[in-house]
Amino acid sequence: MLRIQNWKGEAVLRVGLILFLSVHLGNALARLYDAGIDLRQIISLPLLSNAIVMLSACGAMIILFAKDLLSKHPIWSLFLLGLTLVTLTLDSSASLLHEPAMKGTQTAFPKIVIGSICFQGAMIGLAIWISHQHQTRFWEAYGFKNGKPIKIVAYGALFGLLALVFQTMYVVVTTRFSIEVPEQEVVQIIRQTDGFWAKAYLGFFATVLAPLGEELFFRGMVYPTLRERVGILWGTVISSAIFTLIHFNPIETFLPLFVLAVSLTLAYELTSNILASVVAHSIFNLANFIAVNLTKTG
Fold first, then answer.
1. Inter-CA distances, 239 with 30, 70, 268, Å
2. How many angstroms separate the CA atoms of 190 and 186, rounded?
3. Is 271 inside a domain boundary?
4. Which of 118, 128, 263, 267 has the fewest Cβ atoms within 10 Å of its own Cβ atom?
5. pTM to 2 decimals?
6. H or E stretch at 190
């Protein structure tokens, strides 16, 4: 079996921190976009008190960890700490305005655009960056040249279909026992979005951008790092749990998402080529994207 790229733990943690900051910045921008706030809202007492709480929490973190963080690359560490403080404050403050504003929102499509740039876009950029940090070519680091393309695509299709079969069985069982499974927010956004170009972007996001970015990060970086330290089994379980916790919205979607994550991990483990996971993820998302549009209501 071909070797899967191993990463330095501190490098992956650094990538995770930067991604965390990027996601929170995206959340803040999306919420502020929805709220359409003005200066009077920014300087209101709830926002100021919220900002003080966030500043205090971040200040405590700096006091506890500053010695270790500043021992290496002090300028970079200070920059990350400052960015963390700003984005957490902005994100948390914007959330106070988010709910009232969303009541009058007809579509949340701009949230997808902002989120995809700050989350999936950041994942792709960081995947390229970490490969350069390890002095490895991007295509080699994620195994794009491993195996015959037809075989890799076949593996991806197989595991994507297996995840879809489990999802279908899950829907049948929950329907049979009258268990209501609320829709994820992204599904609601797809239903609410009209217009050819908006739909086209959502399709591109679901079938290309999200699978590529998320597989590079979760299967390409997180899984190998855990695999090296706790083995294949626990590496699969832990990385799949992280993927699921980040994605599931209603708790009822946890199980099918976890099974999907395990399937994607197995596709990568058996082929040592991240393309297999990307294909599987893309097929799963494409099937659901088509299903949502075919059953669109209202």
1. 27, 29, 13
2. 6
3. yes
4. 128
5. 0.76
6. helix 185-192
